[in-house]
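User: Can you help me understand a structure? I only have the sequence.
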Amino acid sequence: MKKLKRLYFIHTDEYGEGDGVFNEKEHLLDFWFGNDANWRNEYFSGFMEQIGFECLELHKGPVYKRLLKKLHTAMKEASGCEDEA
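Assistant: Let's start by predicting it. Here is the structure, written out as tokens:
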């Protein structure tokens, strides 16, 4: 059996509701805002596995914290938000 490539999925509402997907090397592949779309792992993980991807939904832990920081940076840049001093 061929080894599945791992994808990480996370959700946030820090800079507007949004979802992000990262590869095994923790590189942000893409993200979207909740008013555009939302990821439903219970619907999508089955067909994703059939095309070679294992989708892990993260909610806590050190990997989650690293990826959340990357997602927040991308969302801030896309929405034009700036950190308050």
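Now, to help you interpret it: The helical segments are 41-50, 62-79. The first strand starts at residue 5 and ends at 12. Let me know which part you'd like to focus on.
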